[in-house]
Amino acid sequence: MFKAIYLEKSDSAGFSAGIRELDDSDLVANTGDADVDLDVEYSTINFKDGLAITSSSPVVRKWPMVPGIDGAGVVAASRDPDFAPGDRVVLNGWGVGETHWGCLAEKARLQGRWLVKLPASIDTRSAAAIGTAGYTAMLCVMMLERHGLKAGDGEVLVTGAAGGVGSVAIALLAANGYKVVASTGRSAEADYLKALGATDVIDRNTLSNPGKPLQKERWAGVVDTVGSHTLANACAQVRYRGVVAACGLAQGMDFPASVAPFILRGVKLIGVDSVMCPMEDRLVAWQRLGAELDAGKLASITTETDLAGALEAAPKILAGAIRGRLVVDVRR
Questions:
Q1: Are both 253 and 323 inside the same structural domain?
Q2: For the chain, what is the total number of helices (H) and then of strands (E)?
Q3: Vertex 43, ends 329 and 51: CA angle to 5°?
């Protein structure tokens, strides 16, 4: 038997979310041809997990479901020749927690091709603290660099800065010599953001309302986790041939912008997907996280809870009320 957050939905009984004791046979029956058995040690709460646990959006496509798009732990058994019992691995995305049982549980059965062996410098708790949010932040930095951004080019804006992606993005960019400006709606977090490496903090309201198609040039690069008017205004303020990495939609899925920044200033808008990202980029991202993310800064943005606390945290992350990263010790 093992503990898990368990989501159910039916026409007659409606939706429910709670902690359930499950049998190994339940896991086998609901994970198809998965070939790696994982003893999960830590998971996290991400925005998508919040949507699933509160049933605020139809992200879950198969019922019943164990949520948890992130998991870090030790391989217990493997039918995949690339993995062996005792391997420390991390899982991010691939539809886990949506169409395949996830990692807000003490056990998971996963496809080996979804897993990344952890670098020696990252333990399972740190891997969960990084999670999809931190891994996405690293992908954003990689995309900015791939499309020409260099330290010294000018200010880099990070929106939704006090959240998980934003917090790690600031730390990574600062570690690589970039001058980072943080945008947040939580003015009380200014000292926290500066401790991560931000040189300046601006109010999100300067970006979140409708604006002109072209505005005064400021940003050499942008990491945007917000979407909607915030992304449109950020693009309108990007300097000639600057780069924007867009990875989130906290304000909305819409993009009320014009083509002006792209055809008059040569601005590059790059979408960053972490869910189905090719393994080649995942491996580079995790190696760089092990080398470039300061362990002290990661600890400063991380808090810990248990499965019951994860249920309580779900609506809070949707409301933007959780700072940094929340690690879930599934064994507590």
A1: no
A2: 10, 15
A3: 120
136 and 264: one domain? yes
Kindly state whether residues 107 and 153 are assigned to the same domain: no
27-74 pLDDT per residue, tens: 999 998 999 999 999 999 999 999 999 999 899 999 999 999 999 999
Tokens of 289: 């996280």
Number of domains in the chain: 2
> What's the whole-number mean pLDDT along residues 285-295?
96
Does one domain contain both 80 and 109?
yes
Q: What is the pLDDT of residues 255-271, one digit of tens each?
A: 999 999 999 999 999 99
Pair 261, 308 in one domain: no
pLDDT of residue 11: 86
Pairing of strands 325-329, 36-44: antiparallel
288 assigned to some structural domain? no
- pTM of the complete model beyond 0.90: yes
Strands 155-158 and 219-224: parallel
- What is the DSSP secondary-structure string of 85-144? TT-EEEEE-TTBTTTB--SSBSEEEE-GGGEEEPPTT--HHHHHHHHHHHHHHHHHHHHH
Residue 125 corresponds to which tokens in the numbers above?
């708790």
Q: What is the pLDDT of residue 13?
A: 86
The answer to whether 107 and 31 have CB atoms below 8 angstroms apart is no
Instruction: Convert the pLDDT of each residue in 111-141 to its tens digit.
Output: 999 999 999 999 999 999 999 999 999 999 9
CA distance 33 to 145: 38
> Are 21 and 282 within 8 A, CB to CB?
no
What is the rounded CA–CA span in Å between residue 94 and residue 277? 8
The verdict on 15 and 109 lying in the same domain is: yes
Answer yes or no: do 110 and 7 share one domain: yes
Does residue 8 belong to any structural domain of this protein?
A: yes
